[in-house]
Design brief:
Number of helices: 12
Strand content: 15-25%
Largest sheet: 6 strands, mixed
CATH topology of the largest domain: Hexokinase, domain 1
């Protein structure tokens, strides 16, 4: 959603503008500008990270960024594009993980901007995937399998404060540029494979009826797995944050934390396989988000790969689907900027 412009949008193309990647924990806010007059790619000029809980709202964060970090010594901002988890309902962003409500018009007014655009955060990330260099991708599954949208759709997925999901689709003969399909697929209900997984999710369902992928395969979800396992086994719950669970699990300091990580990676492998099958993602799967880079070594030796390849009728297809890992970093900002340029062409 965006409010009406008071200037010719073509004159905005060459100007720096604000792009923000807003998550439940942090908001990354940056200045971007087109790489050329006809380019749909952006150059990242500056990025600042804000702890969301320390600010009363997103409008105040954007206003602070404009005031404290003017580009080229002058605030030339006329608009901003917001990459944020969730989706737009009328003027409001529907998201349960943000610390405050976000209304587009109120955010625009508080930030002193003339125009604000919204894009889902993983939709924005997906817009950055086609321009990634090979070195940015690290192999999780299928080292010898070619990766890329030229081979078919690419699924983009990642656990952070929530579970993001989007897809990059190949271009057409008329328009060869890759296209992006936003998705709320992470809110599909989560299936289990083993009796132990069923028991764990059953324990979680005692306090939350619809145990979907987002509820389990996220930072808060890892903590929920640890708590459910502790409750089932009658163990004390001494860990209070997802980072504590991942650290204790990898260090072997807590049996419940170790099992939580094991179950997390296994369920993620199964869910990624299901999503790849539904999308026919022959171009590959990209894993991003805030958690996976911190448990990358654990993920590599976990049950993720076996559960992704699975058995049954679709095994031969999944054996030809590569899985790669990236550091999310500033890619959400870059992708949001690229999308915004495309909207004005």
């Amino acid at each position: 959603m965006q409010n009406s412009l008071t200037v010719d949008s073509r004159s905005l193309v060459a100007r720096p503008f604000i792009a923000a990647d807003v998550g439940g924990t942090h908001a990354r806010v940056g200045w971007v500008r087109p790489r050329g007059s006809d380019s749909l790619d952006v150059e990242l000029l500056r990025v600042e990270r804000y702890a969301c809980a320390k600010w009363p709202g997103l409008g105040e964060i954007l206003a602070d960024f404009r005031a404290r970090f003017p580009v080229d010594g002058t605030d030339t901002a006329t608009h901003a594009v917001l990459a944020c988890a969730g989706f737009l309902q009328d003027d409001a962003i529907a998201n349960v993980n943000l610390p405050w409500p976000v209304a587009i018009e109120a955010t625009r007014a508080r930030a002193g901007l003339s125009r604000v655009e919204f894009i889902n955060d993983f939709e924005a990330l997906a817009h950055a995937i086609p321009s990634l260099e090979d070195g940015a991708l690290r192999t999780v599954v299928g080292a010898d399998v070619p990766f890329g949208v030229e081979n078919g759709p690419v699924l983009v997925m990642g656990p952070g404060t929530g579970l993001g999901c989007a897809a990059v689709l190949p271009g057409t003969a008329r328009d060869p540029r890759a296209r992006v399909l936003p998705s709320e697929g992470s809110h599909a209900l989560l299936a289990t494979v083993t009796p132990r997984e069923a028991a764990i999710l059953g324990q979680m369902a005692r306090s939350y009826a619809d145990v979907d992928a987002d509820y389990v395969l996220s930072g808060p979800g890892l903590l929920r797995l640890y708590r459910a396992i502790s409750e089932l086994d009658g163990l004390p719950q001494v860990l209070a944050a997802p980072a504590e669970v991942s650290r204790a699990g990898m260090a072997g300091e807590s049996a419940a934390a170790r099992e939580a990580l094991d179950v997390f990676c296994a369920l993620l492998g199964s869910f990624c396989a299901d999503a790849a099958i539904m999308l026919r993602a022959s171009g590959g799967v990209v894993l991003a988000g805030g958690i996976l880079p911190h448990i990358e070594t654990f993920l590599a030796t976990s049950d993720f790969a076996r559960r992704f390849r699975r058995t049954g009728a679709m095994r031969s297809f999944l054996e030809r689907v590569p899985v790669r890992l990236i550091d999310h970093g500033d890619l959400g900002i870059v992708g949001a900027g690229c999308w915004s340029l495309g909207q004005r062409r």
